Amino acid sequence: MKRLTFLILTVCALCAAARDREVRLRIIETSDIHGNYFPYDFLARRTGSGGLARICTYVRSQREALGRDAVVLLDNGDILQGQPSAYYYNYIDTAAVHVCAAMLNYMGYDAATVGNHDIETGHPVYDRWTAACGFPVIAANATATTTGQPYWKPYAIVERQGVRIGVLGLVTPGVPTWLPEKLWAGLRFDDMVATARRYVAELRDREGADLVVGLFHSGTGRADARGALNENAALQVAREVPGFDLVLCGHDHREANRWVVNAAGDSVLVVNPAANGRKVAEVDVTLRRQEGKPVDKRLSARLVDVATLAPDAGFCRTFAGQEQAVKRFTEQVIGQNRTALTTRDAFFGPSAFVDLIHDLQLRLSGARISFTAPISFNAAIAAGPVRVSDMFNLYTYENQLYVMRLTGKEIKDYLEYSYGHWTRQMSGPDEHMLNFRAGADTLADAWQRLAWPSYNFDSAAGLRYTVDLSRPQGQKIRITGLTDGTPFSPDSTYRVAVNSYRGNGGGGLLTEGAGIPKDSLAGRIVWSTDRDLRFYLMEEIRRAGIIDARPRNDWKFIPEAWAEKAARRDSVLLFR
Description:
Elements: H1 2-20, E1 22-30, E2 40-41, E3 46-47, H2 52-66, E4 71-75, H3 84-92, H4 99-107, E5 111-113, H5 116-119, H6 123-132, E6 137-138, E7 142-144, E8 155-160, E9 163-171, H7 175-178, E10 187-189, H8 192-206, E11 211-217, H9 234-240, E12 246-249, E13 256-261, E14 267-272, E15 279-290, E16 293-305, H10 313-318, H11 320-330, E17 333-337, E18 341-342, H12 352-365, E19 369-372, E20 380-381, E21 384-387, H13 388-394, E22 401-407, H14 408-422, E23 459-461, E24 463-468, E25 477-482, E26 493-499, H15 500-503, H16 509-513, H17 521-524, E27 525-528, H18 533-544, E28 546-547, E29 555-558, H19 560-575
Parallel strand pairs: 1-4, 4-5, 5-6, 9-11, 11-12, 12-14, 17-28, 19-26, 24-29
Antiparallel strand pairs: 1-15, 2-3, 7-10, 8-9, 13-14, 15-16, 17-21, 18-20, 19-23, 22-26, 22-27, 24-25
C-alpha cells in the first residue's frame, strides 16, 4: 500500500512539474513567396536569392538546434503566383501534384493561409493545391455563400510540448475589388475585425489555446484605421480585438516588427517578413505554466535574412525534375526583339514598353481607347531572342482584358486621378515631378520611394492629351481628340480596354477617380478575354515573330522643359 501511495505521489509530482514547466518555442513565418520556390530566378535566367530552397536550409537548422517539437512553421499566402514555376504548375502541367504543395509538405509546414494572388489563380488551381497540402489551409473570413461557413478551415491548432497554439487565418477582404467574380465564385470575403472577434473566443474557450496567433494575409495598414473591409487591417485587428498574442501579416510586402496595445490594454506583437522569400519572421515564445495554465508569456521577434543561404541539398535533389521542366518551358524562344525595352521610361512619359501593351489591348479588343500602367516597377527586355520568361517581366500578373463603356467625362476624371497621384504640382523645373514618399532618399527599396504604386500609373492610348505639371490634381489633363482625328466629347460613350484588376475597381481609378459606383462596374463590361493577357502577348509575338515596339507618343508632359529637367533628376532618386 505504501509503495502504491508513493507511486501515485510520484506521478502526481511529475504531472505538476509538467504543468508548471517553462516552454520555449520558435515560430517561423514565410509570406508572399510569389513562386520563388527554387534557388533559380527563371525571369532573370540566373541563380536567384531567397526562396523555399534556402528557407528549407534555415528551417532545418532551427529544428536541429532546438528540436522539431520546438519549431512551428507557417505560411501567409500569395505563394501560387509570380515566378514561372508557379504558372507552369498552375496552368501547364495540371496532372502532377502541384509542386508548391509538394514542397510545403516536404518542409513540414504546420498551417498556411491563402492570399489574394492565390485566389487569382482560379478555383481549379487553388482547390487542387489545397487538396494536396498535407496541413490545414485556413482563411476564416473567406465564406462559402451556399453554407455561410468558411470555405477553408477557419483556424488550425498546433501542439508543441504540451502547448496548444491556435492559428487564425484571415485574407484581405479586397479580393472582389481586384478579381473577376468567376475566380472566386461561391465565396464572399468578410470583414477581418468582425471575423476575428467571432473566432478568438472560440480559440481561447472551446479549443483551450494557450497562445493565439493571427496569420493574416493583410498588411499592417494605418495605425488609425477604422471601419469595415479594410485591405490592410493587421494593426486594426491587433488593436481592436483582444485575445491575440501575436499577429503575423503579409500582403503589402513591407517589413514590420512592432508592438501594439489592444483595447484591453494588452500588448500584441505584429510581424511581417516582406516578400519573395528573402527574409523570414522568427518569433521566440517563452511560456510558463502553472497548474496547467499559462501565467507568463514573453515574445520577441526578428526578421532573418535567408537570401544568401545555401539551398538545402535534399530539397534540390527531390525537386530537380520539376526545376528542369520549368526551365525548358521558360527558355522557349517565341520571337525576336529589335530594341531593348524598359519600364523606367514609363515614369516620365510615353514608353515603348507600356505602349506595346496598349497596342495589344487595342488590337485584341477592338476598343478605341486603352488604359494600362507599367505593371512591373523596374523590368527590362533585352534586344535579341524573346523567351517565355520575358513575358513575366513584360506582364507580371494573370490579369484578363475587359472592354468597358465609359463616358468622355469619366475618361478624363480617370486620367486626372491617375496623373494626380503619379505627379506633383510643380512651380518650377527644379522641383520633383514624381510624387515621392516622405524620406524617399533614405529608403533602400526603390519601389517604396513612390507614394503611389507604379501599377496604378495608368496612361491612355487612342487619345491625344497633355498633362500639365504646373496644375493641381483634377486640372492637369487636356484632351484634344482621338488619335484617329475624331473629336473627343465628355458626353459621348467610348469602348475602353482595361485589365481585369482595373475593371473590378483595383486602384480606385474607376471608382474614386471616374466616380463609378463599385456595384455598377460589372454592368459596364461588354467583353472580356478567356485567358490572361500574358497568354495573348505570347501568342501575338509568336505570330509576328518580331517585336519592334516604339512609343506611340499619344500624350506628353508640359511644360516640356520642366518635365525634361525633372525627369533626369527624379530618375536618379528613383533608380539610383
